[in-house]
Design brief:
This protein has about 325 residues and is of the alpha+beta class. It has ten helices and 14 strands. Helix 2 runs antiparallel to helix 3 and helix 7 runs parallel beside helix 8. The chain is globular, with a radius of gyration of 19 Å. The N and C termini lie far apart (about 40 Å).
């Protein structure tokens, strides 16, 4: 679909808008305001696009946070039929407290290609680069997964780096990783960026593990498929088995016993992932405000080409249809 390739610059404009909206309120402690501004700004950009678009999933509704409506129509209603999974702010708490690693991110594909995992509880995720594709599974012990990926990447365990969310639910995983002697990066938010980092050698990150939200899993899986990486996802049950949640997931079309891969969550070979930095992080720089506008760091990856585009955008707010309101 040449139209998806042609739309790549517009996809980064969406995440840039969300990043600017969120960054305006960095450190002010108001998570709802941050989410709302990110949604408002990105929605304004999408309303100008010549697409027949639909947001099939957006992180936030389960927590009653501002978000796109599920199945919300976006675009002008003309042009290619596309679907989006959105996370206007992956790292709302990080943004509200002025910490690192917050980004805005989305996955985009022709209609019917993305599998949206409901924003209902947590999903266990493993992400790594192309070297380990087909060599690991979630049936393996964590220690075996780490050793297999290290072998595939030709790294000693003491030079091997695992990234994971700093969460109480990960204490047992953290203990087992420390026993292996690997290097560990604990991040306050942002497992999308952490997943993508495993496919970029310059980041020094080799493997992401841990439990996170569903929409982020699909967005990260789209990015990893574009980068020829590996993503494994299944339903995370934690210490207590919630049968009511199992039923909700089954009713929503989730196979609660299945291990989903990047090919299950992002089907076909016409896919795109875009992200923009809100606060400085492992993957992208944060938004910098300047007297007449802002500077935003972005990343876009797409299939079938596998092209990675990194860009720095300098926005001028005066006279801009989206950003004029900031002045």
């Amino acid at each position: 679909m040449s139209s998806l390739r042609a739309l790549t610059p517009s996809l980064t404009r969406i995440t840039i808008a969300a990043a600017v909206g969120a960054a305006l309120h960095m450190g002010q402690g108001d998570t709802d305001l941050i989410d709302q501004k990110a949604v408002d700004f990105s929605r304004a950009v999408m309303s100008q696009m010549e697409i027949e678009g639909e947001v099939i999933s957006c992180e936030g509704p389960i927590d009653n946070a501002p978000a796109f409506e599920i199945r919300e129509k976006v675009g002008r209603g003309i042009g290619p039929k596309l679907e989006f999974v959105m996370d206007p702010v992956d790292g709302t708490t990080a943004t509200a407290t002025g910490r690192k690693d917050a980004i805005s991110a989305l996955a985009c594909a022709p209609a019917g290609c993305l599998q949206a995992l409901p924003d209902d509880g947590y999903y266990f995720k493993i992400a790594t680069g192309p070297e380990a594709k087909g060599k690991i599974s979630l049936d393996m012990p964590l220690e075996s997964i780490v050793k297999e990926v290290a072998l595939a990447k030709d790294k000693l365990l003491n030079n091997f780096t695992v990234i994971m969310l700093d969460r109480r639910r990960h204490q047992e995983i953290l203990k087992r990783l420390r026993a292996l002697g690997v290097r560990i990066v604990l991040i306050p938010d942002g497992d999308i960026a952490g997943s993508v980092a495993t496919c970029l050698p310059e980041t020094g990150v080799d493997l992401l593990v841990g439990a996170g939200k569903g929409p982020e899993a699909t967005i990260a899986a789209t990015a990893l498929k574009c980068l020829h990486g590996t993503m494994l996802v299944n339903v995370f049950r934690g210490e207590k088995h919630d049968e009511k949640r199992d039923k909700r997931l089954v009713d929503a079309g989730v196979d609660i016993d299945k291990t989903y891969t990047q090919d299950d969550l992002a089907k076909g070979d016409q896919l795109a992932f875009a992200a923009s930095g809100i606060t400085k992080g492992e993957l992208l720089e944060g938004v910098t405000f300047i007297p007449d506008g802002a500077i935003v760091d972005s990343l876009c990856v797409r299939l079938p080409s596998g092209t990675i585009e990194k860009s720095t955008t300098r926005l001028r707010f005066v006279g801009h249809p989206v950003y004029e309101r900031i002045i």
